[in-house]
Structure formats: structure tokens, C-alpha cells
## 1
Amino acid sequence: MTLAQGVNVPNAQWTGVVTGIALSMLEADMVDAVVCIASDDDDSSGDEGGGGGGWSEPVPIIARTKEEVLRGRGVKPALAPSLK
């Protein structure tokens, strides 16, 4: 939890603790990638009201960059496969 302290992740659920930890570990080269659940129509902007399925069509991604990890921020209250 200490790794994410002070990290402000816009459009993340609660304080973005899980996203912050994933970002910290990726940036510190502690991991090569992080498995995240992104929205099918995610444009990485975090804006609501876009077209497509949004949170109701989650897709697993292997995030290797900060931008890819940020695609997984926020809650997706739907069933999502972690692996395909």
C-alpha cells in the first residue's frame, strides 16, 4: 500500500490504489507486464457517455506501458475473463 501513497489516478475507483501499485511496480521494473481489465470501447480518456459497450463489455489486456495500465482503471461490475 505504501507504493501507491500519494499517487493520484484520475477516473480511478476510490483512490486508485490497485492501479497505483501496478504502475509503481511496472515503472520500477519489478514486473514486465500487468494483466488488466479494460473496457472494449475504452479510448483511454476516462470520459463517460461514449459509444460502445463501456464497462459492460470488459476485455483482458496485458499492459506493458503506463498508458495501457491506465486503460484498466475504474470498476467494471461485470464478468470478465482474465485470460483468453
## 2
Amino acid sequence: QFQTMRKALFAFFCLLFVVSGFRFAVISDIHIGKGQSEYKGQETEQVLNLRKDVEHIEKLHQSNPIDFVLISGDISDKSQVSQFEKARDVLSQLSMPFLPLIGNHDIWSYHKQWKEEFPTG
């Protein structure tokens, strides 16, 4: 059931849009490190899904050139540097530029042990 939902979300968020003569793809809510208190670069489900997304976008790019990829927030799950580094490593496999935007999980740790009163990212 999760995979069906994942595919539906991917289809929704990675649609190609034609706007003013350019094309772009969208990836949203990656959440690298989800479910882990301290992420250390492991190949988690979120990382593997992101790798599949990148592969899919590259395949689309072969037949319908894409100008850039918009990453619309929640790249990390707990705003840990290691989560952003892993996302950068995977997203750098794209042959077109990507533009990451900040989501709420990218500026706040969402970690029970950390009691920040304000965003930390």
C-alpha cells in the first residue's frame, strides 16, 4: 500500500510542467533520516526512493528535456547536516540544475532529546 501511495505521490510531485517555454520537475518531502535519532549517511528507504526519483527524472529528461528540478522542502527529517549532505550527494547525480527550497523539517530538529525553543537550521 505504501508503494502505491509513493508512486501516486511521485506522479503528482514529479510531473513535468511547461511554463513560459521551460520544463521542470518537482520532488517534495524527501525526509532523509526519518525514523532515526542520528543519521550517519545510511542508505535508508528515503535515500533509495530519492535515488529512484533521480533515475526517473533522468529517463524523462532523455525524451523531454528538463531545465531544472525544484526540491520543494523537507529535504531532511531532523535538520541534521548529515541528512543534507546525503541529499546533496544523491541530487548531484542529476544532469540538470536543482533548486532546493526550505521546509519546516529543514529548520527545526524535530528530535525529542533536543529542546530547542527556536529553529536551528
## 3
Amino acid sequence: LVMTVIMGGAAPVHSKSRRQKYDKMWKARKRECEKATCGHLIPDEAQNCVNMCISEDCFGDIYASEPLEDGEIDTDRNRAFTACIRKEAREVGRAQRNKYKS
């Protein structure tokens, strides 16, 4: 048990801070989408609009074949969507770092 806590606590610190950085990026985009692009919709009915605004590619991969119904919460697809936008954010970050290195 002690070994698990020690090993489990040591490794994820670096990746957790990166994930938090990328989460801040897409959550800021989400707030922008909720206010500007999808602000004219009722919040319970705006989730598809907000998700599409955050990332059209991830929306297409996760929700396009079966969009959310108004007020629907689909935890599994939400997790997949979040993973997709985190991946996109990482790729954007890498591209920017590589751009500055060149």
C-alpha cells in the first residue's frame, strides 16, 4: 500500500500539470463559445453548439453520428471528447514549441 502511494504520487505530477495547462486552454475556449457563439441558446440546449465550437474535428469524431439531445448527459462520450480536445491542445502546443525552435 505504501509502495503504491509513493509510486502513484511521484509519476503523475508532471503530466497532471500539463493536463491542467491544456484544460485551461480548452475551458477558456468553452467559456468563449458559451458566451459568444452559442450565447443565444438556452444552456441546456446549447451543448452541441458549444462542443462544435470548441473543436469541430472532435465533435465530428465523437458526436456527429448521434448528437446530444437537449439536456442529455453522456459521460462516456464526454470523456472521449475531453480526451480528444486535450490531444488537440497538446498537438497545438508542440507545433508552437517547434515553431519557436526553428
